[in-house]
């Protein structure tokens, strides 16, 4: 059987996933990244075959969304449910909760019967990932002192630095579209800034994409208008990954030129790093007037780059005029969701269903993170799932 | 055993429920309507006998309430839980989401692991049911293209046209109170407008009631003040149903006269069709001033019909002065929930517990819709439930 | 085995828990109180041993929070999940719903498939507990009339009079810290008012603590500034409990003196009884101006007692300078969560982890209330849990 075979492949792989939070892809070994993809694919196959993959008879998965979300919220809920966990929302005020006592205490108070905490905190540069680590340290302390019967795992559902459940879903999609991770070697992927009528979009998607794709020998073209750079340290990580994996990373400033011979394109808006720094400072001071002024400046600046729309003429420049289009969704589609945006409507339509397929990996990626966090021998537990033969639906 | 016997009765009935959304009762065959009632009653009996009717080991039921709800929300949650599904709310803005891209995309994004989507969208004439069909078409597309592992079923939890979970709960209650559906033949049921101090109540309850009850040979009296008509096309459907089923449908304009010799009465406020049309136009333009003015006009008009209260003298006109009183709840009870309303307090009190019993069918009706959507042989799956002998509570 | 032994101890104890709401600890026999603690401890041990304590294959636990909550909300969700119930929130307006028809009707409408309703209603003196009883009476009526297939149990998650899930968690913690309930006999516990920069904190915690601890032979010192008294009837109950249990209850008005030789201290702010009466009257009239003025008066009055902070010098007065510090959390910690508050930061830090351990009993206390409400023979059902050997996590 196909599933049996796929599980067997996992048997001897050593990873650094068991008992560890999943916060940044670049903290995880390549074996771990591959394990997440493999387990995600096996869980997907199992569900399609009406096999119940329930591993928890009871238990809670806490979701802590410090920014709005529909897609990731449903992905987290789906993954939790797939494994048997009930979701409980932690409904904070959307503002940053004071660090210190409150984080430490709240982390423990919600975790007496929690198996996972999924956190989205992507508004403040320098804060989101730090917050997740504060929560993690508080859970470590609680577990060490007998407050918590087990140490809940943390899943990064998007922070200021990375968006690992997204980038891994993107990678799973590429793996499927190109046949294997090995086939991605030498492929050109363009992570390009694109125009959007909104401002303040997080940097975590482009950062997560270049930091992950650079590990698989791809040639990355990172394109953005001058001044729209990402966090320099993360670009450095991607560069170093590229060097190691035998790929490359080039930065350029013309969408049109960047698209030449691309195999894969990811045109997506984001706010410039230095703007996000200013914005974070203003948000922390709750300076409404300052924020309003910054928004005006930004929108005016963005408007200079309305031609950074991924349209038919740019698509034509790509390999066979048909590079695979990726997006984390929702895209700003010109004439559909906004007047002028990231992508031309007809171009988007051509790849629309494939962007849905791309998104469809996210619940399984999250479930794979959960499974590998709780079970040191994923192959063994997946085999047991097969053996017990529980149906997901029906008797 | 009673349950065994009831299940046997189902064995050979052919319905049009399997794999189909439940959007309008008049799209379903009489066999399907009877199947819903029968399955609902069997599930109710099973739960009362502490038999677990869980059929999903995991899975999500999405609820999308585009208007407030307590009763239907809990009924949907209860039905989902009864079958083993976890509820996940889609918390949109309460305004109409732009049709087109967003509906299509969101429908897929929330459905990667969903088995059902329950939708309430009853504010806009010409919109609610249409929206459900847009969602359905998007799910069809997603399923056909491999985006979704299965096609989630849609349950109409109230739209601008019909409120099938309500009218079927009403019918189940009538079946129980009168002994059988056959006993309803020739009974007079009065669906009457009643005064309320609020305005803009949806038309879906009276429309749903006349369109469904007309299929069982009842004599329907639809009573309302001149100008308070329902959607003409749905009244036509009810008329045609009456003709076919050997019943009748008469429209009149005096509550008092309508009540003569009634076996069943359903006094309930609604907004006139032509007002709902104006209101929809104003809502779509977000014309607050216009809405305020329309409300004033309507309330002033309603006030002319304060005598459309179901009171002791009107009750006296009914068969033996004791027609069965129905209401979808909450009723506007004079002197209790408002100064003057749909029903006199003492009259309501006489039938209060029975309105609760009526409401009590709704969770089972929804569960029956779900079960028959997912299982082509309901009798077979219900028998398996009996055979496996799982307790709902206890070991 | 340890768990086996603990279950055996329960076998022959008669309690008044089965089928009864848990509203006030002083309505329950001592055997019942001990049963709650014992079952809670057994469930805690079982979960730590990865034994699934699931007793419901499906079913709902309704939470009705009429005031904000994080800790208790998560405790209720955890307890429900531990036993296999799904939580469904009843999201009312935060204002008091009109008593009468609505309470009666809503109670039934949400309960067709509910096993428990957890209610927090602590804002209005004379209202919260009354509301819970109104809900209970409505459920009785519904069950008696066949509206409800079973009578959902009510769990008091804090009212105007008592906070039983908190005081029982506190007691479980004391039992663990001192080795047994018997060891608490003769111990001095100080329930002391403490300064807080906020006002209007409920009386239910101090009331719940003195009414419960007085049953175990402890010497209770109730300390507060003149004018900050509790509900007199509840103080009388505590006094009478003390007399019966061989303990004592003394009221005094100096935090410093009260702390002399204390074994246990519980410094916690609350609003004076007579202020809560005025506040309730103003809230019921929705008199915003009056509320604002009352707040000013209160805060000014509180400010006279800033020295009612539990600090190192007061801690020094206690037994060995190391009385066990209790708090229901979150505490107002001077220099951490506020400028000046209930407790000095270094003192709090010394006991911080132990306050987390204290809080950790709450989910198990609630689960024990649920289990003993639904199963007349707790020992028997706990033994069955052991025998079936279901894992909570894993296969």
What this model shows, in words?
- Three copies of one chain form a homotrimer.
- By secondary structure, the first copy, chain A, is of the alpha/beta class.
- The first copy, chain A, has two domains: 188 residues, Rossmann fold; 194 residues, Rossmann fold (3-Layer(aba) Sandwich), CATH 3.40.50.
- Helices cover 47% and strands 12% of the residues of chain A.
- The first copy, chain A, has 15 helices and nine strands.
- In chain A, the strands form two sheets. A five-stranded parallel beta sheet of chain A has the order 7-6-5-8-9. The first copy, chain A, has a four-stranded parallel beta sheet with strand order 2-1-3-4, sandwiched between helices.
- In chain A, helix 3 links the parallel strand 1 and strand 2.
- In chain A, helix 4 crosses helix 5 and helix 6 packs across helix 14.
- The longest helix of chain A is centred in the first third of the chain and has 19 residues.
- The first copy, chain A, is globular and about 55 Å long.
- About 2% of the residues of chain A have low confidence.
- At the A-C interface, helix 4 and helix 15 of A face helix 2, helix 3 and helix 13 of C.
Give the N-to-C terminal Cα separation of chain A.
23 Å
Considering residues with a beta carbon less than 8 A from a beta carbon on another chain, report the largest interface and each chain's count.
A-B, 36 and 35 residues
Largest beta sheet of chain A, briefly? Answer: 5 strands, parallel
| CATH class value of the largest domain in chain A | Alpha Beta
Structure summary, number of beta strands of chain A? 9
Multimerization state: homotrimer
Q: Uncertain segments of chain A of ≥5 residues (pLDDT<50)?
A: 94-100
> How many discrete structural domains of chain A?
2
Judging by the overall fold, what is the CATH architecture of the largest domain in chain A? 3-Layer(aba) Sandwich
What value does the Rg of chain A take, in angstroms?
21 Å
**What do we call the CATH topology of the largest domain in chain A?**
Rossmann fold
Total helices of chain A: the number is 15
Strand fraction of chain A equals 5-15%
- Any idea what the CATH superfamily of the largest domain in chain A is called? Aspartate/ornithine carbamoyltransferase
Structural class by sheet pairing and helices of chain A: alpha/beta
Q: What would the principal axes of the Cα set say about the shape of chain A?
A: globular
Strand order of the largest sheet of chain A: 7-6-5-8-9
Order of helices and strands of chain A: HHEHEHEHEHEHEHEHEHHHEHHH
């Amino acid at each position: 059987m196909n599933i049996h075979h796929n599980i067997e492949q996992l048997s001897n792989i050593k990873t650094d996933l068991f008992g560890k939070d999943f916060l940044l892809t670049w903290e995880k070994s390549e074996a771990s990244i591959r394990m997440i993809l493999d387990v995600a694919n096996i869980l997907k196959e199992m569900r399609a075959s009406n096999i119940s993959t329930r591993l928890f008879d009871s238990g809670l998965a806490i979701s802590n969304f410090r920014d709005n979300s529909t897609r990731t919220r449903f992905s987290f809920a789906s993954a939790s449910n797939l494994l048997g966990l009930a979701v409980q929302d932690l409904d904070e005020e959307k503002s940053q909760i004071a660090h210190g006592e409150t984080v430490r205490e709240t982390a423990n108070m919600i975790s007496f019967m929690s198996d996972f905490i999924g956190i989205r905190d992507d508004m403040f540069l320098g804060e989101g990932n730090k917050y997740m680590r504060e929560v993690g340290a508080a859970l470590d302390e609680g577990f060490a002192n007998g407050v918590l019967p087990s140490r809940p795992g943390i899943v990064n559902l998007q922070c200021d630095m990375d968006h690992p459940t997204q980038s891994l879903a993107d990678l799973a999609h590429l793996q499927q579209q190109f046949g294997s991770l090995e086939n991605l070697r030498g492929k050109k992927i363009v992570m390009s800034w694109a125009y959007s009528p909104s401002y303040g979009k997080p940097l975590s998607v482009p950062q997560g994409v270049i930091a992950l794709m650079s590990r698989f020998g791809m040639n990355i073209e990172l394109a953005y208008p001058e001044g729209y750079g990402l966090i320099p340290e993360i670009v450095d990580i991607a560069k170093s990954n590229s060097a190691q994996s035998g790929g490359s990373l080039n930065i350029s400033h013309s969408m049109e030129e960047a698209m030449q011979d691309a195999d894969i394109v990811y045109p997506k808006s984001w706010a410039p790093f230095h703007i996000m720094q200013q914005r974070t400072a203003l948000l922390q001071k709750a300076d409404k007037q300052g924020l309003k002024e910054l928004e005006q400046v930004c929108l005016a600046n963005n408007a200079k780059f309305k031609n950074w729309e991924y349209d038919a003429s740019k698509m034509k420049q790509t390999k066979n005029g048909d590079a695979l289009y990726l997006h984390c969704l929702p895209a700003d589609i010109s004439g559909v969701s906004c007047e002028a945006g990231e992508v031309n409507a007809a171009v988007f339509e051509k790849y629309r269903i494939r962007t849905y397929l791309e998104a469809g990996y996210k619940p399984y990626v999250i479930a794979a993170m959960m499974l590998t966090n709780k079970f040191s021998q994923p192959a063994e537990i997946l085999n047991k799932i097969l053996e017990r033969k529980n149906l997901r639906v029906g008797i």
